[in-house]
Amino acid sequence: MWARIEAWPAWVLGLLGGLVITLLNALGALSVFLWPKPSARVLDSMLGFAAGVMLTASFTSLILPGIAEGGLGPVIVGIALGALFLTLSDRIVPHLHLGRGAEGIGGARIRAVWLFILAITLHNMPEGLAVGVGLGSGEIRRGLQLMLAIGLQNIPEGLAVSASALSAGMGSTFYAGIVGIRAGLVEIPLALLGALAVEVARPLLPYAMGFAAGAMLYVISDEIIPETHRQGHERFATLGFLLGAVVMLALDVALS
Length: 256
Description:
Helix content is about 80%, strand content about 0%. It is mainly α. Strand 1 (about 95) and strand 2 (about 100-105) form a beta hairpin.
């Protein structure tokens, strides 16, 4: 079975991976109909879980395989470029953090709901890229492991986004669910782009793995962890983080 899947074109794998994680994000976003008002403690625990999965996946599925593929140097360069890309995007693209207000160029002139969508879109970009790079690398088991991990953490993350939009007064429950779905759509083209990039230029694979990992690490440190600690629920966020790390390690062992 693995041999058949590995024979598929990289763009097909990237597209399918992007669709899977986006659908799981949509599942989480639509869960707001069943659980419209989770407590801030629960939301911070969910985001902590997502951070734990992302951090562990950055090392087990991107950084370490990248070093094995091309050595430490290219991966370090990729990590630096990924973090730089997110830093510039954070400064230039207008977006809204519920705890910090509007950021980026021209943010004051754009509706709050779109600023919020742009903020979550920036957060989701590295996840889609990472899945595409993982599936396009030729290591299909690691790619599937990364896809499952990102997809799994997309469920609570999607609910957290929709519930946050609802509690911030951005519209009805239905509209909040749509906000969560919209913010995850960027993962499809980014997964496709990541898979195509490593297929067209195989020597770029360790750089691409480092880039995706650096972007995810930036999001974890700059966005997710500060948000989970903003309302005094650090302990619950940390427990969620540890659970996410353990789940990702279990996936790594199961699919190795």
